[in-house]
Every structure is written in structure tokens, then in C-alpha cells.
Amino acid sequence: MMRKVYIILGLGALFLAGLLTGGVVTATYIMGQVQVILSDDGQKLEELLFSRMSKKLGLDEQQQAFAQDWLGQITEDVQPVRNRARAEIESILSSRLPQLREQLDTDQNEKLDRWLEEMDSRSVLPVPPLEKN
């Protein structure tokens, strides 16, 4: 009787471990893909949109060529907007960052610096120049 209970508990633990591992791997993969899309100049997003549009609409070769040019033009038109938004986000962060720093101790400020550098290197967040208190 106890052996059956252990087998059931073991299988349940194995199932939960698999479920947790699958969730972590999937979340990591999706976040990586989102970072790639957000961090580049719009090229990856353009490729993704073209691929999905082509499949969903069943575009022929001529329509695909037009759609690719059309999306390229949109990407070029959107880039200055992205650059302005990035500059505005950096300005907002620059003005608000000192408020956060006042609430943190020295160790936390150092961790914040490292995190901001990591975010900047990934091009996920336009990080302002680091000013230490």
C-alpha cells in the first residue's frame, strides 16, 4: 500500500517538475524573442509582420513583393518616431531616477547601476547616463 503511495507521489512530483521546467523555458524563450523584436531597428518586427501577413492573407508572389516594400516603407517612417520616443523615455528616466536612488541604500544603488547597464546593453530600456548619489 505504501509503495503505491510513493509511486503516485513520485509521479506527481515528476509531473510538477516537468510543468515548472516547461513554463520557465517557454517564458525565457518568449522574453528573448520580445527583446530581439524591441531592441533592433524594426527589421525583426518587419520580418515577423511580413511572414504572418503573407501566411494569413495567402499572398501570391506579386502581392508578397508589394507587401515587403510596403512594410519597409512603414519601418522607415516609424524609425524617427521610435528614436524620439526613446529620447523622451530617457529624459523621463533621468528626471525620475534620483527619486528612486534616495530610497535605496548603497548596495541597492550598486545593484540598480548593474541592472540599468544590463538593460541598456540589451537595448530594452533607454537608460540615461548613470548618476550616483
Characterization of this structure:
84% of the residues lie in helices and 0% in strands. It has 133 residues and is an all-alpha fold. The radius of gyration is 23 Å and the shape is flat. The relative contact order is 0.08. The model has no long low-confidence stretch (mean pLDDT 83).
| Percent range of helical residues | over 70%
Q: Give the structural class.
A: mainly alpha
Strand content: under 5%
Mean pLDDT: 83
Number of helices: 4
Number of strands: 0
Biggest sheet, open or closed, and with what strands and sense? none
Tell the overall outline: flat
Instruction: Give the SSE string.
Output: HHHH
**Uncertain stretches of 5 or more adjacent residues:** none
| C-alpha Rg (nearest Å) | 23 Å
Q: How would you name the oligomeric state of the polypeptide chains in this document?
A: single chain
N-to-C span:
65 Å
In short:
By secondary structure, the protein is mainly α. It has helices at residues 2-39, 43-57, 61-103, 106-121. Helix 2 (43-57) packs across helix 3.
Topology readout:
Blueprint: H1 2-39, H2 43-57, H3 61-103, H4 106-121
Helix pairs in contact: 2-3
Descriptive keywords:
0% strand; single chain; flat; mainly alpha; 133 residues
